[in-house]
Amino acid sequence: AQSRQLPNYGQGQGLSSRQWWLDVVKQTFRLSGVREDGVLTLVAENLYRDFCSAQNWEVLPGAGETLCRCCQRGFRMGVVSNFDNRLENILEQCNLRHHFEFVLTSEEAGFAKPDRRIFEKALHRVGVSPEQAAHIGDDYTRDYRAARAVGMHSFLLRAAGHGEEPEVPPEHVLPTLSHLLALIEK
Fold first, then answer.
1. Which residues cross the membrane (predicted)?
2. Given 3.90.198.10, 2.40.50.140, 3.40.50.1000, 3.40.1110.10, which CATH number is that of 59-182?
3. 139 confidence band (pLDDT: 50, 70, 90)
4. How many helices (H) and strands (E) does the chain have?
5. How far apart are CA 147 and CA 145, in angstroms?
């Protein structure tokens, strides 16, 4: 509901992503019957802070090795994410940031996937055409279809049996991130 009412962290309405998230948490607890504003503020601020650290995120199995091998092959990599300005620090704490040339969040870009402009901004940042780039994501609409609509190669990270998409050729589906290396080595 918050995303529909205030898309992309409420930037168009003058909110910061921090305030947007604090409002989401407070409203969620209000809907469950909690009414004490002091408690709501404390819970919201603690959750926001906690999700700034690596301890609340899980690195996909094989991610570090896959990213290292892609770097060794000379691939220029970046992150394009519908996330807020905390992402760069989270990636740093997860020991993943050094693999990427850039991190572009929807908060920074001013628009979110599937909007083609976030992909175009990423392509411009590294100076490559869409045909020279590939996007890997786990959302059929926001990642796979959106990147393809811009003209990029695209892969859908999808564990076997988790929501098969009929329009995705099997060779575009990655059961794990490690499967990317087999595609690259072909």
1. none
2. 3.40.50.1000
3. very high
4. 10, 5
5. 6
